[in-house]
């Protein structure tokens, strides 16, 4: 247990350091090598890496529409209904995010508009290294479908048998996704950014992934021949703020729910009660015993932090410093803390709002910024799948009214041609009026 108010500034930084960044340099180098290979050799390189990391016997990167439909058929009724229910809630929440066009007459005859249009071609990355994530298909596919993106390209790593989980195929079919490719990791991101003989080039790439995926997104977003990216959404993080009223069993379950994603997941409890921290630690140990992914969760819990603060408000300050992907608030009046919370990808208020609800079915998006990027990046939403553009239409009267302001500002900037583009019009109006 870490007692926050005894730490120096450097110790506080250390207490909130993220495990996934430790090996960043070797990951950077490996990812650069993969990107270079995909750029130079296209499909051949993607296939080579996919054989190396995912499926040694793979012969084709494509999953045909017939194969996709056959896989989707294999999903049992219970799972099918659950995927459909989650789809409905996610669709309801994301449909409500639609932005109406803005039309404003800033002064008579000067009409300014803002509209949106769907991105034409989007790449959806669905993680599959450690667990296939059909829920992520919904989180990316639903907003892409609502926005009306014409081209939806999905990449996900194949399993050792050279195929994908039936649930991924079913979720993809619900979202109207027909182009599915069997590749993962940095090679999949590079393939969608550059385009290969088989995999179409896309304008923007979405989706979470491990450190190789996240690094590839970062590197490719900085290249003129790359693609835009949604956000850095890497290894899962959860931070729980709790007080002496919180239930240690619930807290432990929430910490473990993210720890089981991967060894580099991070779980942090910041709590104003030493008793609750100690009970939670004991409970984590008890619950670990029965988890199927006990080894992964245990390894991640080695990076867990239990931080004792003087008050709940101090706990919020610690959380703001860390800027977690997910923040769960299990305190007496959780909503009352909301105005103090500055940085968090998605916030879960109260004892009955576990993070798993947002991961699967409540309706919010589970693709969220990690590594502290929740300070500046938003959780994924409909607006990420559209671009905004403005339109203006100015009448003779409108331009005449604006002319002096424009001409004075253009002169102040020493840009004569700008000034002339207005004055020439105003003069023509004055001459016509003579
Ligand atoms: N932040 C979010 O919104 C969010 C949402 C869902 C999942 N996640 C995270 O996504 C991650 C999924 O990771 P995953 O590993 O299960 O699947 P993944 O699909 O992201 O990664 C698997 C791929 O990693 C590549 N890879 C593995 N070892 C490699 C190596 N040594 N060198 C180069 N490439 C290598 C392989 O190409 C493989 O196909 C988890 O960390 C999970 O926490 C985050
Ligand atoms: N918690 C993950 C985001 O960090 C999303 C997820 C998918 N499936 C289960 N959980
Ligand atoms: Zn999760």
UniProtKB/TrEMBL annotation:
InterPro entries: Ald_DH/histidinol_DH, Histidinol_DH_CS, Histidinol_DH_monofunct, Hstdl_DH. Its EC number is 1.1.1.23. The active site is at residues 325-326. Keywords: Amino-acid biosynthesis, Histidine biosynthesis, Metal-binding, NAD, Oxidoreductase, Zinc. The keyword Oxidoreductase applies. Belongs to the histidinol dehydrogenase family. This is Histidinol dehydrogenase. It comes from Alteromonas aquimaris.
